[in-house]
Amino acid sequence: MKMIGRWNNTNRNEAIATGTTLSTKYEHLMREKMKESQGMMVVPSMEYLYTVYDGGKRHIVNMRDRICTCRQFQMDVMPCKHALAIVRKYYMSEYEYCSVYYKKDNLLNTYEVPVYPIPDESIWEIPPDVAADIVLPPKEKIKPGRPQKIRYKNGGESRPKKSRITCGVCGQQDHNRQTCINIPQAT
Predict the structure, then answer these.
(1) Residue 84 Cα to chain centre, angstroms
(2) The SWIM-type domain covers which part of the protein (predicted)?
(3) What is the pLDDT of residue 80?
(4) Residue ranges in the chain assigned as alpha helix (H)
(5) CA–CA separation, 107 vs 19, rounded Å?
(6) CA-CA distances (angstroms) from residue 175 to 56, 170, 183?
């Protein structure tokens, strides 16, 4: 319990010291998405409806309803990189489209509730019927199949970039030795 009180106090002090609109974690995430939104082409359709071209893909973003075809805007209740491309182009406030749960004020409300310390065990008054109960840990049910080695990544987490395959015969990319059309002819 001592650790929980210390953790609550540390987190509350960090939240007070935060000089940003969002909590530190989500402010950093917003900056990362803002960097990813650079170079995207934005085409307005209506006052609140936009088409965003991200490389070879096209995404439709509804800023009024906070909807994007990548679905990250709806799931995270925070602007996705496509919505941030619109925000950047039209000089809107990105914080206007964030959920209140990510904002500093809400974070401070989380740590407003005090964590009361527990007195020493020697002072506790335990009824005899409760003291006589023996509580065993629950039996662990072993699931069938091979255990999972790594955790599943969230949609917002970055995945490692896939390397392009290279042919061992001609050295070109996007095909391998078996599908190579540049096989040298035997004389």
Answers:
(1) 16
(2) 50-91
(3) 95
(4) 2-17, 24-36, 72-76, 81-89, 104-110, 128-132
(5) 13
(6) 21, 10, 12
Would you state the pLDDT for residue 185? 66
- 94: helix, strand or coil: helix
DSSP 63: T
Paired tokens of 177:
């030795």
Token duo for residue 4 = 């929980």
Of the candidates 29, 21, 46, 34, the residue with the CA atom closest to the CA atom of residue 83: 34
Residue 50's contacts (CB-CB under 8 Å, 6 or more residues apart) are 42, 43, 44, 60, 61, 63, 86
Give dist(CA 75, CA 93) in Å, integer: 20
Structure tokens at 9: 């106090």
**Structure token pair of residue 78:** 């925070």
Please give the pLDDT value at position 95: 93
Strand partners, 53: 41, 58
User: What are the backbone angles phi and psi of residue 80, rounded to the nearest 5°?
Assistant: -80, 175
